[in-house]
Design brief:
The chain is of the alpha/beta class. About 35% of the residues lie in helices and about 15% in strands. Strands 9-8-7-10-13-12-14-11 form an eight-stranded mixed beta sheet, with helices on both faces. Strands 1-2-5-3-6-4 form a six-stranded mixed beta sheet.
Length: about 525
């Protein structure tokens, strides 16, 4: 990692797990840490590293949950202080030879945590009070170190973009730093990527009850396929709660017949608009210990539910996102899913903290869902509610894990579903039907782009300077990531694109002023 050799001390817990550490942690706390989902634990927020190294915004913009640190006593956090951390020994043995020699050794700790979280399927956790009376660290990153981090962890074009963003008066110095970093990287071995091995799933030591939530619209036949898959589960759900927005004249009575299923069927015919409202209405009807959120167009294997429960028990977690596999067409079935999993091979088996959240395939403890109230209905009529809900779980101090043991096949039929309402966003003029996010200011002849609900989620969770960088990168990609021959045309369209973006911001800011809503 650096010219200074890192010396780690060893601690064996009562459960015989070996931990390694630097600094002076509270050893009494270590006994409890092994029962958390974490692989590494630290207290860097108290040591001056909160939200440090914001230079990663040039790569992630606002599309990575972990750009900013969370404010909880225990939470996911990759900004590890290299001088004060605790790690499971078997995890350290994978990493110990892959540290990079940065000029500032503190950046080695950030690099370790970043790779652990983003690429290696690991779980770094901040723990308040694990280390006390430690010195405040000052992270000053040289331009050369900054480019080393970028070249080591990202594709090269991100370094070029960062160089451009430093300003014309800094171009020469930044170019020299980039060249020096490139030469340094060329003299070292390539960044090795590996996955931290998943734990073997434990047998269930209890019998928790499970509620299944399915919001649907104009897809009764697909919903019935999913219910039939649940009939064949090794661990039966307690109930399926279906909120169906299919218009009354299109409903078919042959679906949702309770005598056809081994679990209770609860159906609510939705009169409100939006999948967020639908899920919230369904949650109010749930009685299970856990809630599985599902899209109406997925197929699952017989061990799907059991593996979700075993996974949460094994990792002592309250939320997980399953493996979502897109079907080639809507006629594919479970045999196709098995083949796709076989084709994935070892690539399938990566866990750690989920980098996204999907309502198509997720499981959350009901008490946690109720604590968060549910989905923010400001997202209805657009996109981004999944990411918002997952990020809110993380901000509450919980971990959203990625569970590859519970895959689904996502059929994605071209017709039906809640996007039926959202398709109106592409229509302008008198034929357009107003979307929920438009409130009392309906769109007329210029559609806002990006979707105002996406913009709302970004305004809701990120800082002004990060949002500014997102806008800069949005238009940089629009201008320069397409065919060069059409660049003059894109330049001509740029004022109109800017106007669309500004409209998106205006609608999003109105939702921000309104505040999160759940009913």
């Amino acid at each position: 990692m650096s010219n200074r050799k890192l010396v780690l001390k060893e601690y064996t817990t009562q459960s015989k797990e070996v931990l390694l550490y630097t600094g002076n942690p509270n050893l009494e706390i270590l006994e409890g840490l092994v029962n958390t989902p974490g692989d590494v634990w630290h207290s860097s927020i108290e040591q001056g590293l909160k939200n440090c190294f914001q230079d990663i915004k040039y790569q992630t913009a606002v599309y990575w949950w972990f750009l900013n640190d969370f404010d909880n006593d225990i939470c996911v956090n990759w900004r590890i202080n290299i001088n004060t951390f605790v790690v499971r020994k078997h995890v350290w043995n994978l990493f110990k030879d892959s540290f990079f020699n940065y000029e500032n050794t503190m950046l080695s700790g950030l690099d370790f945590g970043f790779n652990l979280l983003r690429y290696q399927g690991g779980i770094p956790l901040y723990v308040k009070g694990l280390f006390v009376n430690e010195k405040q660290e000052d992270l000053k990153v040289s331009s050369k170190d900054r480019y080393c981090f970028y070249l080591k962890n990202f594709k090269r074009h991100h370094s070029y973009y960062m160089l451009l963003r430093q300003g014309v008066f800094n171009t020469l110095g930044e170019y020299k730093a980039l060249k020096a970093a490139t030469n340094k990287l060329n003299k070292t071995k390539n960044n090795v990527r590996f996955n931290i091995p998943l734990k073997e799933l434990e047998s269930l030591n209890s019998k928790p009850t499970v509620s299944l939530v399915i919001p649907t619209m104009k897809r009764q036949e697909f919903t019935e396929l999913l219910l039939e898959d649940h009939n064949n589960q090794t661990y039966l759900i307690k109930e399926a709660v279906i909120v169906d927005a299919t218009p009354k004249n299109e409903r078919d009575a042959k679906y949702y017949q309770k005598e056809n299923f081994k679990f209770d069927i609860k159906v609510k015919w939705q009169t409100s608009k939006g999948s967020c409202r639908a899920r919230n209405e369904a949650v109010e009807m749930c009685t299970g210990d856990y809630i599985i959120f599902a899209d109406d167009d997925i197929r699952i294997l017989p061990d799907f539910v059991e593996n979700h429960l075993r996974f949460l028990q094994t990792y002592n977690a309250q939320a997980a996102n399953g493996l979502d596999i897109m079907a080639a067409n809507q006629s594919q079935d479970l045999n196709d899913l098995k083949q796709r999993l076989e084709d994935l091979g070892e690539k399938r088996w990566k866990g750690g903290v989920s980098q996204a959240f999907s309502n198509a395939n997720s499981i959350v403890k009901r008490s946690l869902v109720e604590k968060l109230i549910g989905n923010d209905i400001n997202f209805d009529g657009g996109y981004g509610e999944d990411s918002d809900f997952g990020l809110r779980i993380l901000k509450s101090g919980n971990v959203v894990l990625f569970n590859p043991f519970s895959p689904n096949l996502h059929l994605k039929p071209p017709q039906g579903g809640y996007r039926f309402w959202g398709q109106q966003s592409k229509i302008t003029g008198k034929k357009r039907k107003k979307q929920p996010w438009e409130l009392d200011k309906p769109v007329k002849f210029v559609t806002p782009v990006p979707s105002p609900t996406i913009t709302y989620g970004i305004l809701k969770h990120y800082k002004k300077e990060q949002i500014k960088e997102w806008r800069n990168k949005h238009f940089f990609i629009y201008l320069f990531k397409k065919d060069k021959k059409t660049l003059p045309l894109r330049l001509l369209k740029l004022p109109y694109k800017q106007y669309q973006f500004s409209k998106s911001l205006k609608y999003a800011k109105r939702l921000i002023d309104l505040g999160p809503r759940y009913k």
